[in-house]
Design brief:
Layout (H helix, E strand, L loop, with lengths): L2 H10 L15 E3 L12 H9 L3 H4 L3 H5 L1 E5 L2 H12 L7 E4 L1 E4 L6 H7 L2 H5 L10 E4 L4 E4 L14 E7 L3 E7 L7 E5 L1 E6 L6 E6 L2 E3 L2 E3 L10 E6 L8 H6 L8 E5 L9 E3 L4 H7 L1
Parallel strand pairs: 2-13, 2-14, 14-15
Antiparallel strand pairs: 1-16, 3-5, 4-11, 6-7, 6-12, 7-8, 8-9, 10-11
Protein name: DNA helicase Pif1-like 2B domain-containing protein
GO cellular component, one term: replication fork
InterPro entries: P-loop_NTPase, Pif1-like_2B_dom
């Protein structure tokens, strides 16, 4: 089976599947050994050093940065990879802190403010929203988390290479696309964030960005790169996720997979969630 055929089989859900030890799901597939990085006690650093093998000397190159990324199912793993790689490049870090408040439109705002002080609000993380604390260096890649100016290329998911870290503005160059290399300026904005877990709307004033040496698999959709690392510290959890991860790369030599969710003889297995009825409805 060729690499292209294997990728398509992952997408179609036609590869042989099985259960593995201590699991109940019958959707585990075996990853070809040629695509796996060597087994290690620290898959994050090993995978990062393969995909970004000469980062300390090439970190400022647009051509280098735009052709590689690491993808993973969870935001926690994304943060761990990004923190590791940020420490691998030279330069002085700059940290931006958000200003977090409870929106005044909430009923009983004064009571909520007593129950949820600023320190607690700072600790909250939400999918698709910037963190309270963002640390960057010059020439780090970032990803926009909101549409700021679509006509100028500033859309949710746009990657940008930072060139200057101001106090209230971050300057950079667009990575990829028809506007590649265009200079941009990213301001702080006020984001209103709701979550049914909390009885309030959070108002967070912060840059709508995230460091993006790594990104979630879902955020990688639509991108085609030369080097992709797939970190599976836990299996994928939704339909078609594994296919999205492995199909971002142009050839087998650019795909590097680290499976760290199982041990022993099953370290080359991972879940491939495919709902065949989705394809049947399209026929």
């Amino acid at each position: 089976m060729t690499f292209t055929e294997w990728v398509l089989s992952v997408g179609d859900g036609t590869l042989p599947t099985q259960k593995i030890q201590h699991t109940t799901e019958n959707d585990w597939i075996q990853i070809p050994s040629s695509l796996l990085i060597p087994e290690s006690d620290n898959p994050i650093s090993d995978l990062a050093n393969i995909v970004y093998h000469d980062l300390p000397t090439s970190f400022g190159s647009m051509a280098y940065i735009k052709q590689r990324a690491i993808v993973t199912p969870t935001n926690q793993a994304v943060s761990e990879i990004n923190s590791y790689l940020l420490n691998e490049i030279p330069g002085d870090p700059k940290t931006y802190y958000s200003s977090d408040t409870i929106a005044s439109e909430n009923a009983n705002t004064s009571i909520l403010q007593e129950q949820y002080p600023p320190e607690f609000l700072n600790s909250l993380s939400f999918n698709g929203a910037p963190e309270h604390e963002i640390t960057l260096k010059p020439f780090t890649p970032i990803m926009l988390l909101r549409n700021l100016s679509p006509s100028n290329g500033l859309c949710n998911g746009t990657r940008i290479l930072v060139t200057k870290l101001g106090e209230n503005v971050i300057y950079g160059l667009i990575i990829g696309g028809t506007l590649e290399g265009s200079p941009v300026a990213i301001p702080r904005i006020v984001l209103e964030i709701t979550n049914r877990r909390w009885p309030f709307t959070l108002r967070r004033r912060q840059f709508p960005i995230r460091l993006c040496y790594a990104m979630t698999i879902n955020k990688s959709q639509g991108q085609t790169l030369e080097q992709i690392g797939v970190l599976l510290t836990r299996p994928v959890f939704s339909h078609g996720q594994l296919y999205v991860a492995i199909s971002r790369v142009r050839s087998a030599k650019g795909l590097h997979i680290a499976v760290a969710n199982t041990d022993g003889k099953y370290r080359d297995f991972t879940r491939n969630i495919v709902y065949r009825e989705v394809f049947e409805e399209l026929e």
